[in-house]
Amino acid sequence: MFRTAAMLGILLILFGCAQVPEEKKDARDPLQVLNRPVYDFNMQVLDAYLLRPAAVGYATVTPQPVRSGIVNFIENLQTPIDTVNAVFQGKPSNAGVGLARFLINSTVGVFGIFDVASEIGLELVKEDFGQTLGVWGIGDGAYLMLPAMGPSTARNFTGDVVDNLVIPQVALSTPQSLIVFAFKALEARASLIPQEGLLNESLDPYIFMKDIYFQRQLFELYDGNPPLKQEPDNYDEDFLENL
């Protein structure tokens, strides 16, 4: 099945190189002629036949307290990365909160399974290396629709590679890293199920997802206070947070 899906993805890319209509051209998306076939492959093959059914099954059989514990554990595992990136971005308060959260949740919270830090007012602030590059003045680069991984940009893809190389080298073996990745993917997809209607009802789901992605990146880069309020009124805040 995996080989078949991979071959279908390659064929979609090869045969998807048609001219993009003038009204749909986007300076942020110079690779749209390749990105759209990958998006179709992700949604019509991988999501329809693999990821969504797995996420539905996961959400159905896993009690919410267990799901919350899994999410808390993974977020706690990533907190040192958030903390280091906060230092790189010149945000000492966020770095201090990240360090305190990691110490509290790793001990009192039983390896991060329980988010004790949030209960005492130390809220999670996610900082990744893609944001760090943005703070350093590096632009988004081309928008990318990655097979199986979804939307990204050249800058954020680079940041993800750096971040995802650090955790396995510091704390996890390869099998453990794969298990964490699988649970992250399942939880992320399961959290989007209530928001599927917005995507399906949009005139162009590809453009809708791209615009949501850039709004989310702007929101995170400026810690929730972007210089210009660009979020259209018809975008759902839950969809924006969970994408």
TrEMBL record:
- Swiss-Prot/TrEMBL GO biological process terms: intermembrane phospholipid transfer
GO annotations of cellular component type: membrane
Signal peptide range in chain numbering: 1-18
- Source species, domain of life: Bacteria
Sorted keywords for this record are:
Lipoprotein, Signal
Q: Which InterPro entries match?
A: MlaA
Task: Locate the transmembrane regions by residue number.
Answer: none
What the record says about family reads:
Belongs to the MlaA family.
Name of the protein described by the UniProt record = Lipoprotein
What is the scientific name of the source organism?
Pseudoalteromonas tunicata D2
